[in-house]
Design goal:
The complex is a heterodimer of chains A (260) and B (376). Chain A has a single domain, classed as Rossmann fold, CATH 3.40.50.300. Chain A is 33% helix and 27% strand. Chain A has 9 helices and 12 strands. The radius of gyration of chain A is 19 Å and the shape is globular. The N terminus of chain B is likely disordered. Helix content of chain B is 75%, strand content 0%. Chain B starts with a helix and ends with a helix. The chains are: A alpha/beta (260), B mainly alpha (376). Chains A and B meet through helix 2, strand 6, helix 3 and helix 4 of A and helix 1, helix 2, helix 11 and helix 12 of B.
């Protein structure tokens, strides 16, 4: 259970500003959804948290700056699922998930009995045990994606960052993967920040959405507030109809032609 | 050698199927048993390969006693065994002072080039990288060229043999320059910038060497003989010279096998998993370069082995570095000792350079392994 705070976090690539100073707090157990067109700064924000891009400002975990912690300690606090994970074809599912235990292994050490049990346990809980001995190259995209999430969970970090976790999956596997994260968030009180392209799914799973556009935050709040036809038209340049279901689900439907 | 590893692979696959089958009862943790059970036989195969190769290297040779007398003599020298092999002291000298150091040095060179190749390939995540990539070979060649040409008089009075010493130093210097240049490609030093820097520095150093050779044509033959590999003149002194570097290099690389496995998911993801990526890369590159430079300085350039052996190991035993590194070390040693044998027997007394033999035997062998693998 940890909160994730952003205090004026900004990212520049050379002279190009990818993310203007961004401030918010993701509370313990909250799911924050980042949306916005390509190049809006969603990935930059996530990559700034895990130190893959240089950033200014402070990222706080439970109020204390991440920069004060060692790299390994950071990996114990924050698990990151990249947009395009590198999949070593000839690694087995078990070996891959076991990599998630790396933050807990000393420099010259090797994984303990506990680490191996932990990895096996994650595979079991996610019903992935049948892939433990299979090579990743033999698995489908959906199976790999679940193993990537399994690796992140083996990290036992209270904060989970997901960069387009479902972009390569069909609709069934998208739902499956997100339901999995939602369930684990409930069970373990995980704090989740996800960047997503599918607006309906983003609204369904997040407690709060932040819409980024050219590095600026242009809207934030509950799905019903952020996912409005005019707002989306302005920043995505799309024609959509927004439909509100009785249960509160906000459905974003793209439209053809000039009827808008 | 072909049939043994295949037998083990089949057994490994059998276990895999078994593991999938028992997947329903997770308490048995099938994958853990699998990894524990299948490592030991591989190490045994590796050790056996080295022992067999060493014996062959010591027993076979153009001059000296027949092979079976040498074998008897070796048995005789084991404790508690006494056999009259009928070998004279002079003959034993051929075995012990000529064949043995040559076999041992070949083993050290093969082991080091293979494990260094595996290390470089792991750290750059590119299976086509060889241990000479960052300029170790070009630097060693330049160092030797300098000794044979412009520095001949200067180095004449040196206590140690100047050619290996200079080859070693210039090789290290060249890789150091590559490392510095690789960091100057606009900020971040990554695997790609290092490889590119290696290409640039290697061409530059080779150009300098060619320029010097062009102006000192009389030493061309001497330099090329040196470069093409000289296991034939191996002495125990050479073995003593390289052993410290070889041991340090191999131990450091083996200690980083888990980090190299972590790097298989890329530098970014490894970093988010807590790996000190830059430090691992630096340490692995230093260790691999130190070993490569040391063996190149006593044996000349022996190509091919640093790529082919790690590849062979990955094909037959899997790509995890916990296996690739130790097995490359052992199979590399065995391969080079064995590859050295036809060279000295077939064209005796004019010997074929070892680099030619490794490619001549290794290339078809590798194709066979590739095809066998593709069929299964």
């Amino acid at each position: 259970m940890s909160s994730l705070g952003f205090v004026s976090v900004s990212v520049d690539y050379g002279r190009r500003r990818a993310l203007a100073p961004f401030t918010t707090t993701v509370h313990s157990g909250e799911w924050l959804g980042l949306i916005g067109p390509n190049g809006a700064g969603k990935s930059s924000l996530l990559r700034a948290v895990v130190g893959l891009v240089e950033s200014r400002g402070d990222v706080l975990v439970d109020g204390s700056p991440l920069t004060l912690r060692t790299r390994r300690r950071r990996a114990e606090l924050i698990a990151y699922v990249p947009q395009l994970p590198v999949i070593p074809d000839d690694m087995t599912g078990f070996e891959y998930v076991l990599l998630g235990r790396s933050p807990y292994v000393g420099y010259f050490g090797s994984e303990s009995r506990h680490d191996k049990a932990m990895a096996a346990n994650v595979l079991e809980r996610l019903e992935l045990t049948q892939f433990a001995a299979r090579r990743l190259g033999q698995l489908s995209g959906g199976e790999r994606q679940r193993l990537v999430i399994a690796r992140a969970l083996a990290q036992e970090a209270p904060i989970l960052l997901l960069d387009e976790p479902t972009s390569s999956l069909d609709i069934g596997h998208q739902q499956q993967a997100l339901e999995l994260v939602a369930r684990l968030r409930r069970e373990h009180g995980l704090t989740v920040v996800s960047a997503m392209h599918d607006l309906t799914l983003a609204g369904q799973y997040s407690d709060r959405l932040v819409l980024l556009h050219e590095g600026q935050r242009v809207a934030s709040g509950p799905a019903a507030d952020v996912l409005q036809a005019e707002t989306l038209a302005e920043f995505y340049g799309v024609r959509v109809t927004v439909h509100h279901e009785p249960d509160g689900t906000v459905v974003v439907i793209p439209r053809r032609g000039l009827e808008f | 050698m072909i049939s043994e590893p295949q037998a083990v692979t089949t057994r490994g696959e059998g276990l895999e199927t078994a593991a999938v089958g028992t997947g329903a009862s997770p308490d048995e943790r099938p994958d853990r048993q699998r990894s524990r059970m299948s490592d030991a036989p591989w190490m045994a195969v590796g050790i056996a390969a080295v022992v067999v190769a060493l014996l062959a290297g010591v027993v076979v040779g153009p001059a000296g006693p027949t092979w079976w007398r040498t074998a008897l003599e070796l048995l005789d020298r084991l404790p508690l065994i006494s056999i009259d092999s009928g070998i004279s002291d002079a003959q034993w000298n051929i075995v012990w002072q000529i064949r043995a150091p040559r076999a041992v040095l070949g083993g050290l060179v093969g082991a080091t080039l293979s494990i260094a190749g595996a290390g470089y390939q792991g750290v750059f995540r590119n299976p086509l990288v060889d241990p000479y990539l960052l300029g170790a070979a070009a630097g060693a060649g330049l160092g030797a060229t300098l000794v044979f040409s412009v520095f001949r008089e200067v180095t004449a009075g040196w206590v140690i043999d100047p050619a290996p010493a200079m080859a070693f130093l210039v090789a290290l210097l060249t890789v150091f320059v590559t490392y510095v240049v690789g960091g100057a490609f606009g900020g971040q030093r990554t695997g790609v910038t290092l490889v590119l820097a290696g290409v640039a520095v290697t061409s530059f150093v080779t150009a300098v060497q060619t320029f010097i050779l062009q102006r000192n044509v009389e030493v061309v033959r001497e330099v090329y003989n040196w470069i093409l590999g000289r296991l034939s003149t191996a002495q125990w002194g050479d073995v003593r010279l390289v052993t410290p570097y070889v041991v340090v290099s191999a131990v450091v690389l083996l200690l980083h096998r888990r980090h190299l496995d972590l790097l298989r998911v890329g530098e970014d993801e490894a970093a988010t998993l807590g790996a000190p990526v830059a430090r691992v890369r630096l340490v692995v590159v230093i260790a691999a370069t130190l070993g490569t430079a040391a063996v190149v300085s006593v044996s000349g350039l022996i190509g091919f082995i640093g790529i082919i052996i790690p590849h062979f190991v990955r094909l037959v035993a899997g790509a995890g570095h916990r296996r690739v590194l130790p097995l490359s070390l052992m199979f590399g040693a065995a391969f080079l000792i064995l590859a050295d044998i036809p060279g000295r027997v077939l064209t005796d007394p004019a010997e074929t350079p070892i680099g030619v033999v490794t490619a001549f035997i290794g290339a078809p062998f590798f194709v066979v392994v590739l095809r066998a693998r593709a069929r299964s």
